Amino acid sequence: MPFTPFHMGQALAVKAVADEHFSLITFGLAQLAMDIEPLVRLVRADPVLHGFTHTCIGAILIGGLVGAFGMPVARRVLARWRQELQAARLGWLAGPRHLDWRPAAAGALMGTLSHVALDSLMHADIRPWAPLSAAKGLLGAIPVGELHRVCVLSGIMGTVAWVGRRFAFRARFAHSGRFR
């Protein structure tokens, strides 16, 4: 199944912990990039939807490309996010002013590799270790419904923790005018 918001759940949990060391934007771009191949194969009615892009090698290559070429897009999205938050008087949620290559790469690579890991739990046509192995990865290790619940729950908990963390920083830096 092409991109679903369930993949973003674990990213929101990681963002709560790693904050400015992890780009949620490049993670999201990586999720979209990963599902281009299955989408094309779905449109063509191919019997196999997940090919090379859903291997560890493919994920690393796509993660590298998204980390490099997604930076300009991510920077524009981040700038717009900051503008919108400032206009809504929620600047304390804005985070860093500039996106460095390290968080961009971390988000992109975590996005692609976690995508392969999560999809290998759900889809029988994924061979994460190809061409080294034809093993189906973790297929069936957890029921799909349970996996979706875990992803949604981690997304909710991560969002609450991230907002709480930002709010705590707001109180600490309110006197400096940084978050106005």
Order of helices and strands: HHHHHHH
Shape: globular
Q: How many structural domains?
A: 1
Residue stretches low in confidence (pLDDT < 50, at least 5 long) are none
Approximately how much helix is present in the residues? 55-70%
Distance between the first and last residues' Cα:
42 Å
Average pLDDT, rounded to a whole number, is: 88
Strand content: under 5%
Number of helices: 7
Largest sheet, in brief, is: none
SS content category: mainly alpha
Please compute the radius of gyration using only Cα atoms: 18 Å
- The tally of beta strands, per DSSP, is 0
What does this structure look like?
Helices cover 63% and strands 0% of the residues. It is an all-alpha fold. It has one domain (5-176). α1 (8-18) packs antiparallel against α2. The longest helix has 30 residues, at 144-173. It is globular.
Which properties best describe this structure?
180 residues; mainly alpha; 7 helices; 63% helix; 0% strand; globular
Please render the helix and strand layout as text.
Blueprint: H1 8-18, H2 24-34, H3 36-43, H4 56-69, H5 71-87, H6 101-122, H7 144-173
Helix pairs in contact: 1-2, 1-7, 2-4, 2-6, 4-6
Quick take:
63% of the residues lie in helices and 0% in strands. The chain is an all-alpha fold.
